[in-house]
């Protein structure tokens, strides 16, 4: 809560004592108290100098209902306990969740019909086997996806969040379409089950990453719990709408398809707006490329909001630097002479060069490398990639690579201190938390002494 006295605002975590029957002898307001939910109280000098308080009498009913809603569905201390983009994201997320809930009901209706509900020739055993195959293939898909992409979900939380919702719509479309092709019903349902399990992994993991971003007072549990309450309320609303819609579409596939097309369009648009409203204060490869390119052209650092607006959200868009961070020494060095070449001109706690086997940029980290060294190596890789991307790596001779590497070392020595200082002025979080989509699959970067 906020207390305003003589032009000074301070925070308080205690809730007010509710008393609306206080009589005041002195009309002079000593101070006013305002809470994050909008509740306001005024404090007066009462009998014998006692401090008396009175709640703002304007729109008591409105404020009471609003306070109840805020306490039920928003984190304690809102809006000061969450990030500035919290409300906009949650509003769009609520809309997309409603659309997804209704389309999910349409898909369930189609699955039950395809499984034989209402068909006298269908058997319970066949429907059970189909359901078990669907669940089993989905579980396998969940494990494989988490193994292949789990370490990358933190880095591009926004992009993977959008990917999960797009894949969810594809899965729902397959479920709605499954009864149309009875010969391929089981195959279609199993494919949809795999997609939905992938959605569960990607969506749940990225939601956790976004919760870390939104929670500003070590209140992750509260933010997560209130997000669950919001989702439950939206699903309840979707359930009520579905109870009205399902009887209307039970006899017409075309009505189902039209509703699915409309709701899916709404779902995708709301998702894009929700993800686009997030302002991440950490660097990943996309945001680092944007910030660095702007710095090299304009000589100044973009703010986190500007960098996030320019970040591509759709999967497959944007330029990704082919760099691997934290590779074993043997992946980069195959001779003593090559080690000497890579160390020439470098005063940093990392080695940067091209892998002999894949021609990709790779970084070997020193065991004492700090987060600043990691950022420096990533910036160095970006600069080196920009210098060499116009020509094929295979067309560059070893001498050309050595020369370019030495030039970029010198360029980095001149500009990194200014780049680091400018980024730190915008937000310290930008430099203390860096996520790069280039870690090895085992998640354990190699270090050298």
TrEMBL record:
PANTHER family: RUS FAMILY MEMBER 1, RUS1 FAMILY PROTEIN C16ORF58
Membrane spanning stretches: 191-210, 231-248
Taxonomic lineage: Eukaryota, Metazoa, Chordata, Craniata, Vertebrata
UniProt-recorded name of the protein: Uncharacterized protein
Pfam families associated with the record: UVB_sens_C, UVB_sens_prot
Compartment list: Membrane
Principal place of residence: membrane
Protein's organism: Leptobrachium leishanense (Leishan spiny toad)
Limits of the Root UVB sensitive protein C-terminal domain: 300-422
GO cellular component labels: membrane
Family note: Belongs to the RUS1 family.
UniProt keyword list: Membrane, Transmembrane, Transmembrane helix
Presence of keyword Transmembrane: yes
Superkingdom classification of source: Eukaryota
Signal peptide: none
């Amino acid at each position: 809560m906020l207390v305003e006295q003589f032009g000074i605002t301070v925070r308080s975590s205690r809730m007010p004592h509710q008393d609306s029957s206080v009589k005041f002898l002195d009309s002079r307001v000593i101070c006013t108290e305002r809470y994050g939910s909008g509740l306001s109280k005024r404090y007066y000098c009462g009998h014998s100098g006692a401090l008396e308080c009175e709640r703002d009498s304007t729109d008591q009913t409105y404020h009471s209902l609003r306070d109840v809603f805020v306490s039920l569905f928003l984190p304690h201390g809102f809006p000061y306990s969450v990030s500035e983009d919290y409300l906009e994201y949650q509003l769009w997320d609520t809309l997309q969740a409603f659309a997804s809930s209704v389309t999910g009901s349409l898909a369930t209706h189609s699955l039950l019909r395809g499984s034989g509900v209402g068909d006298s020739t269908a058997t319970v055993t066949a429907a059970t086997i189909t359901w078990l195959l669907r669940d089993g293939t989905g579980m396998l898909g969940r494990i494989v996806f988490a193994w292949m992409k789990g370490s990358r979900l933190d880095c591009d939380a926004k992009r993977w969040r959008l990917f999960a919702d797009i894949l969810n719509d594809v899965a729902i479309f397959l479920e709605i379409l499954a009864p149309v092709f009875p010969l391929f019903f089981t195959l279609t349902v199993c494919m949809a089950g795999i997609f939905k399990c992938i959605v569960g992994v990607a969506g749940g993991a990225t939601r956790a990453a976004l919760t870390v971003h939104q929670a500003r007072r070590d209140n992750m549990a509260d933010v997560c719990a209130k997000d669950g309450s919001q989702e439950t309320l939206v699903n309840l609303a979707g359930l009520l709408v579905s109870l009205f819609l399902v009887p209307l579409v039970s006899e017409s596939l075309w009505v189902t398809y039209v509703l699915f097309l409309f709701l899916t369009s709404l779902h995708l648009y709301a998702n894009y707006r929700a993800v686009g409203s997030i302002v991440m204060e950490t660097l990943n490869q996309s945001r680092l490329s944007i910030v660095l390119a702007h710095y090299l052209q304009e000589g100044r650092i973009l703010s986190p909001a500007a960098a996030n607006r320019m970040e591509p959200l759709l999967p497959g868009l944007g330029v990704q630097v082919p760099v691997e961070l934290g590779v074993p020494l043997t992946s980069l060095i195959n001779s003593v002479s090559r080690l000497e070449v890579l160390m020439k001109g470098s005063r940093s706690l990392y080695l940067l060069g091209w892998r002999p086997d894949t021609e990709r940029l790779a970084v070997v980290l020193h065991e004492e490398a700090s987060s600043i060294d990691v950022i420096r190596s990533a910036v160095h890789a970006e600069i080196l990639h920009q210098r060499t991307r116009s020509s094929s790596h295979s067309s560059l001779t070893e001498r050309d690579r050595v020369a370019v590497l030495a030039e970029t070392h010198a360029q980095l020595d001149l500009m990194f201190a200014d780049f680091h200082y400018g980024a730190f002025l915008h937000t310290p979080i930008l430099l203390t938390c860096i996520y790069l989509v280039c870690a090895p699959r085992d998640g354990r970067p190699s270090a050298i002494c």
